Amino acid sequence: MSISTPIYDFVKQYADGETIRFHMPGHKGNQRLGPERLDITEIKGADALFCADGIIAESEKNAAEIFHTAKTLYSTCGSTLCIQTMVFLAAMGVKNPKIIAARNAHVAFINACALCGCEIEWVYPKYSGSICSGDVSADLIEKALENTENPCAVYITSPDYLGKTYDIASIAEICRNHGVPLIVDNAHGAYLKFMKKSRHPIDLGADMCCDSAHKTLPVLTPGAYLHISELAPKRFSENAKKAMSLFSTTSPSYLTLCSLDLCNKELSEDYPKKLETVCGYAGNAKRELSALGYRVYGDERLKISLYTLDCGLTGDETAQRLRMKNIECEYSDYGYVVLMPSADSKEEDFKRLVSALSFPMPKIRLMPTEFEGYSPKQALSPREAAFSCSETVDIENAVGRVCAKTVTACPPGVPIVVSGELIDENVVKIMKRYSFLTADVIK
Q1: Cα(383)–Cα(366) distance, rounded to whole angstroms?
Q2: Is 412 helix (H, G, I), strand (E, B) or coil?
Q3: Of 186, 181, 182, whose CA–CA distance to 157 is shortest?
Q4: Residue 235 covered by a domain
Q5: What is the pLDDT of residues 164-173, one digit of tens each?
Q6: Is 12 inside a domain boundary?
Q7: Confidence check: pLDDT of 412 > 90
Q8: Are residues 82 and 155 in the same domain?
Q9: How confident is the model at residue 363 (pLDDT cuts 50, 70, 90)?
């Protein structure tokens, strides 16, 4: 497949010219950081992101061909903008919209529901010792669909932050049987399209999904894709641009757009081969780390999540040991440390990782976080709570109060207690485990 790079070509030609820039941005192309000469605004010929009919439209069409979608749109505001758009499209025209969602959703989803006036029917996973991950089966989703009146969508996060993936094909079939669209937060899984056998949500039956391209693909932060399936309701494709414009800045980053544009070309060339090679390196590292005594969690190939409590170390302590070896992880908490390679990672990177984690383990076993009885009661809708006046209190004084601002383990932004929920003793216990000392509650 021969893929053009219309955005990059235009911006590069403009940067190489001698045009005097009497337009934004204020740096006028003078280099301080380095990329300023390519950092332009929506001048003549550069198209406009939310009413694209030129180079951006051509580039987005290239992306749709690569991902085999009805429409793929660019976001320069990360997957957050894509999630806001997907929630809006699902709720559009629905009276008192309600979305069934797995609890390990990103806070961006909760905030989008507050903005769009959506209620949330939570499906609680069987937790893995972390608020970020757990099992969400197709049976759990089907039960929720049977017990929820007129939901406008089902929303799941797969892969989740620790690398657990769900049976999207089965969940999509169940949703289709119930006539309910399936939305997938695939922020960590853009690369799944390019495995030997695609595991991308769109190919598995999802109606819409977001890909944080910058997380796993060679794209600048915060570049992302919003994908809409050919099987999705037509109103999604027809209204997506309008919906995105409601939430986004009117000054999209052309640096990010250029990187998305160039990424298309790389994805269409040797990227799958590079990806398979690095997945092999990651698989070897997981086996070696498992032999050292670490419990490797999750089934995502391009993520290494280690459960460390069996080794007598917290995830945070393990992350600190890695920093002493000049290795920075993606995330750590009490029980886990998460490492995110990409197709640009080198074999030597994995060898250094294994070497850095090869040290004598303490002869103790730490206790995991317990989630028994964790199911906060809802007192107000997310929207009512988010728009209420609030105050900050010590968490010991928050018991019995209504949460005003969603409390998340951030990163990765997964909620412990959501706006509108009652804070109880179980919630406080989990908040302490994630080092929260205060909470915002409704006055």
Answers
A1: 39
A2: coil
A3: 186
A4: yes
A5: 999 999 999 9
A6: no
A7: no
A8: yes
A9: confident
* pLDDT higher than threshold 90 for residue 73: yes
**Six-digit token pair at 150?**
């007129």
Query: pLDDT over 90 for what percent of the chain?
Result: 91
Asked if residue 227 and residue 165 are part of one domain, the reply reads: yes
Please give the tally of structural domains in the chain.
Answer: 3
Average pLDDT over residues 146-153: 97
pLDDT mean over 139-146: 97
Q: Domain span at residue 430?
A: 382-442
Between CA 280 and CA 276 the distance in angstroms is 6
User: Do 233 and 200 have their domain in common?
Assistant: yes
CATH code for position 328: 3.90.1150.10
The answer, yes or no, to whether residue 33 has pLDDT greater than 70, is: yes
* Residues 86/92/98/99 CA torsion (nearest 10 deg): -20
Residues 340 and 386 both lie in one domain: no
Residue 129 and residue 188 in one domain: yes
Average per-residue pLDDT in the chain? 95
| Residues 204, 81 share a domain | yes
Taking phi over 0 as left and psi of -120 to 50 as alpha, with beta for the rest, 114 belongs to alpha
Q: Which residue has the tokens 């728009």?
A: 387
Top mean pLDDT of 122-131, 155-164, 430-439 is at 155-164
Q: What mean pLDDT comes out for the span 392-415? A: 91
Mean pLDDT, rounded, for 344-357? 98
Whether residues 77 and 218 share a domain: the answer is yes
* Separation CA 41–CA 210 (nearest Å): 25
- The answer on pLDDT for 409 being more than 80 is no
d(CA 368, CA 352): 28
Going by pLDDT thresholds of 50, 70 and 90, the confidence category of residue 1 is: low
Residue 340: C-alpha distances to residues 105, 306, 322 (Å): 19, 12, 14
Pick the last residue of a domain from 356, 390, 419.
Answer: 356
**Length of the chain, please?**
443
Residue 9 covered by a domain = no
Cβ-defined contacts of 270-278 (< 8 Å, 24+): 271/194, 271/343, 272/194, 272/195, 272/196, 274/343, 274/344, 275/191, 275/194, 275/195, 275/302, 275/343, 276/195, 276/196, 277/343, 278/302, 278/341, 278/342, 278/343, 278/344, 278/345
Which CATH number fits the domain that encloses residue 118? 3.40.640.10
Q: Is 153 a member of any domain?
A: yes
Section 3-12 average pLDDT: 97
Q: And the tokens for 199?
A: 């595991």
- Tell me, yes or no, whether 288 and 340 share the same domain: yes
